[in-house]
Structure formats: C-alpha cells, structure tokens
Design a protein that fits this description.
alpha/beta; Udp-n-acetylmuramoylalanyl-d-glutamate--2,6- Diaminopimelate Ligase, Chain: A, domain 1; 2 domains; flat; acyltransferase
Length: 336
Amino acid sequence: MKFSAAQIAGILEGDVVGNPEAEVNKLAKIEEGTEGSLTFLANPKYANYIYTTEATITIVNKSFEPEQEITTTLIKVEDAKSAFSKLLEYYNQVKLMKSGIEQPSVISEGVTYGEGLYLGSFCYIGKNVVIGNNVKIYPNSFIGDNVVIGDNSILFAGARVYSETVIGKNCTIHSGTIVGSDGFGFAPQEDGTYAKVPQIGNVIIEDNVEIGACTTVDRATLGSTIIRKGVKLDNQIQIAHNVEIGENTVIASQTGVAGSTKIGKNCMIGGQVGIVGHITIGDGVRIQAQSGIGKSLKDGEVVQGSPAFNYGDFAKSFVHFKNLPKIVDELNKLKK
C-alpha cells in the first residue's frame, strides 16, 4: 500500500516541501530510514539525522528550517509527533478495513449481524449470536451461543468467546484471549476429592475495552464478571469469576485477580501483581509491580511489596532491607 507526499499532507493538513509525488510504503525511525519509508522529526536531539536519513518523506514541525542540503521530502505540520500518531491511527484503520465472510466458516441458525462484517476463514459463530456493524472477527475464532458483540469491535485471530458473553462497542480482543471460561470453583468432599461447582453466569465487557493476547476472563458462578468501559488489560492476565473492574482502570501483564474482588475506576496496576479474592480496591489506587494484595485498599492508595504496604514506607524500608546483613553483623558486635 503506497501513499504519496501530497496524500499524506492532505490527511495531516500539512505543506509539502519537495516532491509531492514521492511515495512511501513503510514507516521507520529517522535514523533507520530507507528509500520508500516515512519518518518524522520531533525531538531536536535527532535533528542531525535529517541530513543523513534515506527516508523518502519526513514529517517536521512548521518551524523547522534545514541548515544544510537534505534529500528527503518534508511535510510541515504544527506538531510532528501528534501528526505522526494521527497517521499511525489512520494507517491502522486502513489496514484493518476488511469486510466479507471468508470460507470455510460456520454461521449457526439465528445469527444476526450488521453492515461491514468481516469474518475470517475457519471461524465458528454459535446460535443466536448478535453482531453489530463493522465488526471484524479474524480467522480461527470461536463465538459461542447467545453472544452479543457491539459495533466496531475487533476480535483478532484465535480469540475464544464462550456462550452468553456480552461485548460492547469499540472493543478489541487480541489473539489467544479467552472470555467466559469456567471460574475456578470446586467444593472439597469428605473423601478428599473436589466436586466442580457449576459456573452458570457470564462475562460483560462494556464499551471501549481492550484486552491483550492470551488473557483469560472467567465467567461468573452466578451473575456476571464485569469489565467496565475504558478498561485496558495487558497480555497474560487472569481475571477470575465474579470480579468487577471499574472504568478506565489499566492492568499490566501477568497480574492475577482472584474471585469476587471489586476494583475501582482509574486504577493503575503493575505487572505480576497478585490480588486475593473477596476484597475491594478503591478508585485511583496504584499498585506497583510484583506486589501481593491481601486486604482491601482505600481510594487513592499507592502500595508496593508482598504483602503490600504504603509505597513511600516501602521505598524507605528497602534501604534497610538490602543492608540487613551489615546491620546484623553490627548488632552482633554490639552484643559481644
């Protein structure tokens, strides 16, 4: 897919300095630019590269004036970094602009879908599924019975959505993610075995949620596991049954949230955090990476450690943690 300097300038409302017919088909860092690539210059620290880059087109601020000869065609805009981000978003939309139903695919009875559906090959759509407009479901995906998927949502290749799940508008679910699998519910028996507790609830994912690759969101035992609007989940996260995650909370990779825990809105949770079940985490809480959360947290708390405690106290305590051998030696000398 090729774009000319004139086309790009039109999208960005910029001005071309150089060849308006120059074409690009790839993106690059300015220091790694090659023929046919598009790059940008926003940080003055990298200004020297504009004189040596082989990139065909470079986006720059309107204030930029070259101090020596350049070979790259310039597109001058108000803010080069913002313009490049806008272009990336446009490119991504064009790249994902697919429609139609590829074969082989299975669409069961009672399925309804809106305009602009893309259904990749080897997909299975269960009974009575409702799919909105401009939904993209990439190859090898499974959608169980009675699932609802809102407008403009994207499910990448190999996504698995179990029955009764509700997915809102403008959601993105990445490859290998499983939504609606059974919660981890087993009742101990007198003979030492465990009997499975049926998991008959569902998962509700509200609008504008993004879930990374290979993350698992379990269905509720009863009721719903709920991911509120605007939540962003990284790759390889475990969300257990009946968990509720509040609006615009972000959670980094390898975090596990145990059953029935309620997490507030606008929280930031680092990677490899473990959160026990049946607790409440308030709004605006920040949990540093590799922390263990064993009790409820109030609004706005910032914690670290395992078990986690106040972040400032943890930082001060860490100075002493790493000096413990020396402190013990001095203590032993004092005792003697």
